[in-house]
């Protein structure tokens, strides 16, 4: 992972009270090879699991 960017935080209409929606972008880099869809999917699934475990986050 090269970079993670938080570019939006939303709370209000269409979200349960006390919940926030965070929009993140990820820049992935492997200096040894070109990343394939499978590689990116594995990283993203790992991130989703980690965020769910650590922050009780849900993918919207």
Can you give a write-up of this model?
This protein has a two-stranded antiparallel ribbon. It has one helix spanning 37-55, and strands spanning 3-10, 21-27. The protein is of the alpha+beta class and 60 residues long. It has 1 helix and 2 strands. The protein has a single domain, classed as 2-Layer Sandwich (Alpha-Beta Plaits), CATH 3.30.70.380. It is elongated and about 45 Å long. The protein is 32% helix and 25% strand. The model has no long low-confidence stretch (mean pLDDT 93).
| Principal-axes shape call | elongated
Count of helical segments?
1
Amino-to-carboxy terminus distance: 22 Å
The arrangement of helices and strands along the chain is: EEH
CATH level 1 name:
Alpha Beta
Rg computed from alpha carbons, rounded to a whole number of angstroms? 14 Å
Q: Which class do the helix and strand fractions yield?
A: alpha+beta
How confident overall, as mean pLDDT?
93
Number of DSSP E strands: 2
CATH topology (fold) name: Alpha-Beta Plaits
| CATH homologous superfamily descriptor | Ferrodoxin-fold anticodon-binding domain
| Share of residues in helices | 25-40%
Second-tier CATH architecture? 2-Layer Sandwich
Low-confidence stretches: none
Q: Give the strand order of the largest sheet, numbering strands 1, 2, ... along the chain.
A: 1-2
| β-sheet strand percentage | 25-35%
Largest sheet: 2 strands, antiparallel
Count of spatially separate domains: 1
Question: In a few lines, what is going on in this structure?
Answer:
By secondary structure, the chain is an alpha+beta fold. Helices cover 32% and strands 25% of the residues.
């Amino acid at each position: 992972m090269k970079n993670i960017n938080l570019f939006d935080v939303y709370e209000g209409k269409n979200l349960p009270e006390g919940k926030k929606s965070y929009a993140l972008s990820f820049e992935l880099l492997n200096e040894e090879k070109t990343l394939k869809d499978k590689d990116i999917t594995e990283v993203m699934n790992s991130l989703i699991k980690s965020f769910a475990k650590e922050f009780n986050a849900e993918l919207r």
